[in-house]
Amino acid sequence: MTTDVTIIGAGLGGLTLARVLHVHGIPATVYEAEPSPAARSQGGMLDIHDYNGQLALKAADLMDEFRGLILEGRQAMRVLDPDGTVLFDKADDGTGGRPEVQRGELRQVLLDSLPADTVRWGRKVSSTRALGGGRHEVTFAGGGTVVTSLLVGADGAWSRVRPLLSTATPEYVGKSVVETYLFDAGTRHPAAAKVVGGGSMIALTPGREIFAHRERGDTLHAYVGLSEPRDWFAAIDFTDAAMATARIAQEFDGWAPELTALITDGDIAPVLRPLYALPTGHRWDRVPGVTLVGDAAHLAAPNGEGANLSMLDGAELGKAVAAHPDDIEAALTEYEQAMFPRSAEAATFEGAEAHGTDSDDNTAHDLITAFTRHEQAR
Prior knowledge:
The chain is α/β, with parallel strands linked by helices and 378 residues long. It contains 13 helices and 17 strands. The strands form four sheets. Strands 5-4-13-14-15-12-16 form a seven-stranded mixed sheet, with helices on both faces. The protein has a five-stranded parallel sheet with strand order 7-2-1-11-17. A three-stranded antiparallel sheet has the order 8-9-10, with no helix packed on it.
């Protein structure tokens, strides 16, 4: 294969693509805006599913390394009423098919599996343009360009590659989450540690939720979800951690103190993360020499599938390129025709509403029903 492969973004999807290509002897270059692998925290826990994320890791020949990252017991799941009553408590019996790992550790495994010069750090894309004949030019902030005959946008929600294919832009979904961390939870935050248990915990009412999970090193990582417009959050000064914490906690007045402790007892300043999504079923007409993977292609509100789909996209695209090394358009067509319906289905599966709390019907009891139906359907 003589086509050069240029991947924008060193997240899980872009790195999985680069790794699968490497397994098949196809070189690729990944350009990443961050200055180094340790430039920022890579997020919390991921449950890697046996029907998508693990398939990607098998294609990448990294299952042994993946198994070494698994945090035992973290598939445990409990659902609570706001008063602290445990309504659903499922232990991790090792058969759940979606073991938990730390996102940063999984990303490092992918990085370590690639030749040392594969990722070019500190290369933020400022623009892209078509040159004709399936070739594209990528321009970087601060100067410099590359020209490529296969350009892959793995650069997330605000992709600089997407405009080559689509005019769609992410829109606010009407909900934001506020992140908190509680460190050394067993000794410093015992009530919160007890209510979360050994894996994940969620408590919710319409428009409000607290989701938390136990990470490596006895850390609790919580996501406090509120269905409010952007202006509502803009009125809160998140540079004043104490004030912001108090204002968010006010929305959970009357909830059990061991639950609200996940807000009020945080060991870092609360971090606001607005949620955005592309239109469900987002797709584009085939454009020679360019495609998208992961959030760049099908950004959705959190539903437990995003990272898994991104990795599977990367793996499936890599396999398609390897199967059609002399016909890139056939490879891209094959990949996109499978990716479009797969991502649309994941965005609408029964149970995805577990992570969207704006419905009046979204209660703990409805969530349990959704979980049960989803498990039975697998």
